[in-house]
Amino acid sequence: MLFAVVVGALAWSAPAQAHGTIVDPASRAYKCWETWGSNHMDPAMQTQDPMCWQAWQANSDTMWNWMSALRDGLGGQFQAKTPDGTLCSNNLSRNASLDKPGAWKTTTVGNNFSVHLRDQASHGADYFKVYVSKQGFDPKTQTLGWGNLDFITQTGRYAPATDITFPVQTSGYSGHHVMFVIWQASHLDQAYMWCSDLNFG
Ligand SMILES: [Cu+2]
Fold first, then answer.
1. What CA–CA distance (Å, rounded) separates 36 from 42?
2. How far is the CA of 82 from the centre of ligand 1 (A)?
3. How far is the CA of 137 from the centre of ligand 1 (A)?
4. Signal sequence: where (predicted)?
Protein backbone atom coordinates (compact mmCIF):
# COMPACT_ATOMS: atom_id res chain seq x y z
CA MET A 1 0.00 0.00 0.00
CA LEU A 2 1.22 3.41 -0.82
CA PHE A 3 0.01 6.45 0.98
CA ALA A 4 1.05 9.86 -0.11
CA VAL A 5 0.68 11.85 3.05
CA VAL A 6 1.11 15.49 2.30
CA VAL A 7 1.98 17.34 5.44
CA GLY A 8 4.66 19.74 4.39
CA ALA A 9 2.83 22.14 2.14
CA LEU A 10 1.09 24.22 4.71
CA ALA A 11 0.42 27.60 3.22
CA TRP A 12 1.42 29.42 6.35
CA SER A 13 3.99 31.97 7.23
CA ALA A 14 4.48 33.72 10.51
CA PRO A 15 3.11 37.23 10.28
CA ALA A 16 5.12 40.05 11.75
CA GLN A 17 3.64 40.12 15.22
CA ALA A 18 2.78 43.50 16.61
CA HIS A 19 2.75 43.86 20.35
CA GLY A 20 4.58 46.02 22.85
CA THR A 21 6.87 46.55 25.79
CA ILE A 22 7.81 49.03 28.48
CA VAL A 23 9.97 51.61 26.73
CA ASP A 24 10.51 53.80 29.81
CA PRO A 25 12.03 52.79 32.11
CA ALA A 26 13.09 50.51 29.28
CA SER A 27 12.74 46.75 29.61
CA ARG A 28 15.99 44.81 29.25
CA ALA A 29 15.46 43.65 25.68
CA TYR A 30 14.16 47.02 24.53
CA LYS A 31 17.07 48.86 26.12
CA CYS A 32 19.57 46.51 24.47
CA TRP A 33 17.78 46.98 21.14
CA GLU A 34 17.55 50.75 21.53
CA THR A 35 21.19 51.08 22.52
CA TRP A 36 22.80 48.56 20.18
CA GLY A 37 20.29 47.60 17.50
CA SER A 38 21.97 49.66 14.81
CA ASN A 39 25.41 48.58 16.01
CA HIS A 40 24.91 45.10 17.41
CA MET A 41 28.14 43.67 15.97
CA ASP A 42 30.30 46.29 17.69
CA PRO A 43 32.85 44.39 19.81
CA ALA A 44 32.98 47.37 22.16
CA MET A 45 29.64 46.20 23.53
CA GLN A 46 31.40 43.31 25.24
CA THR A 47 33.19 45.65 27.64
CA GLN A 48 30.83 48.64 27.63
CA ASP A 49 27.60 46.71 28.13
CA PRO A 50 28.32 43.06 28.90
CA MET A 51 24.76 42.08 29.73
CA CYS A 52 23.45 43.33 26.40
CA TRP A 53 26.42 41.63 24.76
CA GLN A 54 25.57 38.25 26.25
CA ALA A 55 21.92 38.73 25.26
CA TRP A 56 22.81 39.53 21.65
CA GLN A 57 25.19 36.57 21.56
CA ALA A 58 22.61 34.20 23.04
CA ASN A 59 19.78 35.09 20.64
CA SER A 60 19.49 38.31 18.68
CA ASP A 61 15.77 37.61 18.22
CA THR A 62 15.29 38.61 21.86
CA MET A 63 16.11 42.17 20.83
CA TRP A 64 14.62 42.26 17.34
CA ASN A 65 11.36 41.00 18.83
CA TRP A 66 11.43 43.17 21.94
CA MET A 67 7.64 43.49 21.55
CA SER A 68 6.91 39.76 21.67
CA ALA A 69 7.60 38.64 25.25
CA LEU A 70 4.12 37.17 25.64
CA ARG A 71 2.38 34.01 26.74
CA ASP A 72 -1.24 33.18 26.10
CA GLY A 73 -3.73 31.50 28.40
CA LEU A 74 -2.12 31.94 31.80
CA GLY A 75 -5.50 32.62 33.37
CA GLY A 76 -3.93 35.04 35.80
CA GLN A 77 -1.75 32.26 37.28
CA PHE A 78 1.41 34.28 36.80
CA GLN A 79 3.34 33.02 39.79
CA ALA A 80 2.28 29.38 39.46
CA LYS A 81 3.26 29.33 35.79
CA THR A 82 6.46 31.37 36.02
CA PRO A 83 9.18 29.62 38.05
CA ASP A 84 11.69 31.62 40.06
CA GLY A 85 14.60 32.57 37.85
CA THR A 86 12.44 32.93 34.72
CA LEU A 87 10.57 36.12 35.50
CA CYS A 88 12.58 38.48 33.29
CA SER A 89 12.15 36.19 30.26
CA ASN A 90 8.44 35.57 30.93
CA ASN A 91 9.55 31.93 31.10
CA LEU A 92 10.38 32.01 27.39
CA SER A 93 13.49 29.90 26.78
CA ARG A 94 14.38 31.95 23.71
CA ASN A 95 14.80 34.95 26.01
CA ALA A 96 16.68 33.22 28.84
CA SER A 97 19.55 35.70 28.52
CA LEU A 98 17.29 38.28 30.17
CA ASP A 99 17.18 36.25 33.39
CA LYS A 100 20.93 36.42 33.97
CA PRO A 101 22.15 38.55 36.86
CA GLY A 102 24.77 41.15 36.03
CA ALA A 103 25.56 44.77 35.40
CA TRP A 104 22.48 45.61 33.34
CA LYS A 105 22.41 49.28 32.38
CA THR A 106 19.93 51.16 34.53
CA THR A 107 17.50 54.01 34.05
CA THR A 108 17.67 56.58 36.83
CA VAL A 109 14.33 57.36 38.47
CA GLY A 110 13.05 59.13 41.56
CA ASN A 111 10.66 57.64 44.10
CA ASN A 112 7.73 58.63 41.87
CA PHE A 113 8.01 58.00 38.16
CA SER A 114 5.99 57.15 35.07
CA VAL A 115 5.87 53.80 33.29
CA HIS A 116 5.35 53.97 29.53
CA LEU A 117 4.06 51.07 27.45
CA ARG A 118 4.43 51.32 23.69
CA ASP A 119 2.03 48.89 22.02
CA GLN A 120 2.15 48.65 18.24
CA ALA A 121 -1.08 46.66 18.28
CA SER A 122 -3.15 48.80 20.64
CA HIS A 123 -4.36 45.85 22.69
CA GLY A 124 -5.38 47.91 25.69
CA ALA A 125 -4.86 46.61 29.21
CA ASP A 126 -7.04 44.77 31.68
CA TYR A 127 -4.38 45.89 34.15
CA PHE A 128 -0.68 46.25 34.82
CA LYS A 129 0.93 44.81 37.94
CA VAL A 130 4.14 46.48 39.05
CA TYR A 131 6.75 45.10 41.44
CA VAL A 132 10.17 46.34 42.53
CA SER A 133 12.93 44.12 43.87
CA LYS A 134 13.43 44.42 47.61
CA GLN A 135 16.05 46.67 49.09
CA GLY A 136 19.11 44.45 49.59
CA PHE A 137 18.45 42.25 46.57
CA ASP A 138 21.41 42.55 44.20
CA PRO A 139 20.46 42.26 40.50
CA LYS A 140 24.16 42.02 39.67
CA THR A 141 24.63 38.72 41.48
CA GLN A 142 21.18 37.26 42.28
CA THR A 143 18.59 35.67 40.01
CA LEU A 144 15.14 37.18 40.45
CA GLY A 145 12.39 35.15 42.09
CA TRP A 146 8.92 36.04 43.32
CA GLY A 147 10.15 36.22 46.90
CA ASN A 148 12.55 39.01 45.96
CA LEU A 149 9.75 41.37 44.93
CA ASP A 150 7.74 44.05 46.66
CA PHE A 151 4.30 44.48 45.13
CA ILE A 152 3.83 48.15 44.27
CA THR A 153 0.54 48.56 42.44
CA GLN A 154 -2.07 47.13 40.12
CA THR A 155 -3.64 49.57 37.71
CA GLY A 156 -7.15 49.71 36.35
CA ARG A 157 -8.14 49.15 32.74
CA TYR A 158 -6.77 51.11 29.81
CA ALA A 159 -8.52 51.53 26.48
CA PRO A 160 -6.65 50.43 23.34
CA ALA A 161 -3.87 52.90 22.51
CA THR A 162 -0.37 52.79 21.11
CA ASP A 163 1.01 54.56 24.16
CA ILE A 164 -0.11 54.05 27.74
CA THR A 165 1.57 55.84 30.62
CA PHE A 166 0.77 55.39 34.28
CA PRO A 167 2.29 56.66 37.52
CA VAL A 168 4.15 54.59 40.09
CA GLN A 169 4.90 55.70 43.63
CA THR A 170 7.59 54.08 45.74
CA SER A 171 9.61 54.92 48.81
CA GLY A 172 12.72 53.71 50.55
CA TYR A 173 14.67 52.43 47.56
CA SER A 174 18.23 53.33 46.62
CA GLY A 175 20.65 51.98 44.05
CA HIS A 176 20.03 49.28 41.43
CA HIS A 177 16.61 47.61 41.55
CA VAL A 178 14.63 45.54 39.09
CA MET A 179 11.14 46.70 38.19
CA PHE A 180 9.01 43.73 37.18
CA VAL A 181 5.86 44.51 35.21
CA ILE A 182 3.05 42.24 34.09
CA TRP A 183 0.76 43.52 31.35
CA GLN A 184 -2.51 41.65 31.04
CA ALA A 185 -3.64 42.67 27.55
CA SER A 186 -7.32 43.08 26.76
CA HIS A 187 -7.83 41.47 23.34
CA LEU A 188 -7.02 37.94 24.57
CA ASP A 189 -5.84 36.23 27.73
CA GLN A 190 -2.34 37.36 26.84
CA ALA A 191 0.27 38.22 29.45
CA TYR A 192 3.55 40.03 29.02
CA MET A 193 6.27 40.22 31.67
CA TRP A 194 9.45 42.23 31.68
CA CYS A 195 12.27 43.45 33.86
CA SER A 196 13.55 47.01 33.71
CA ASP A 197 16.69 48.02 35.58
CA LEU A 198 16.26 51.09 37.75
CA ASN A 199 18.72 53.25 39.57
CA PHE A 200 16.95 55.06 42.37
CA GLY A 201 18.92 58.26 42.51
CU1 LIG B 1 -0.02 41.59 20.43
1. 8
2. 20
3. 32
4. 1-18
Nearest Cα to Cα of residue 31 among 129, 116, 92 = 116
For residue 189, give the DSSP letter.
S
Q: Where are the domains of the chain?
A: 20-200
Please state the CATH superfamily assignment of the domain spanning residues 20-200 in this structure.
chitin-binding protein cbp21 (2.70.50.50)
Residue 33: in which H helix or E strand, if any? helix 28-36
| Alpha carbon of 133 to ligand 1 centroid (Å) | 27
Q: Which residues contact 130 (CB under 8 A, 6 or more apart)?
A: 115, 151, 152, 153, 154, 155, 168, 179, 180, 181
User: Distance from the CA of 20 to the center of ligand 1, in angstroms?
Assistant: 7
Tally Cβ neighbours within 10 Å of residue 33: 24
Q: If you measure from the C-alpha of residue 61 to the centroid of ligand 1, how many angstroms do you get, rounded to a whole number?
A: 16
Measured in Å, residue 197 CA sits from the centre of ligand 1 at 23
Q: How far is the CA of 191 from the centre of ligand 1 (A)?
A: 10
The per-residue pLDDT for range 17-62, each reduced to its tens digit, is: 689 999 999 999 999 999 999 999 999 999 999 999 999 999 999 9
Q: Quote the CA–CA distance of 147 and 162 in Å, as a whole number.
A: 32
Listed in sequence order, the residues at least 6 apart from 141 whose beta carbon sits closer than 8 Å to its beta carbon are 101
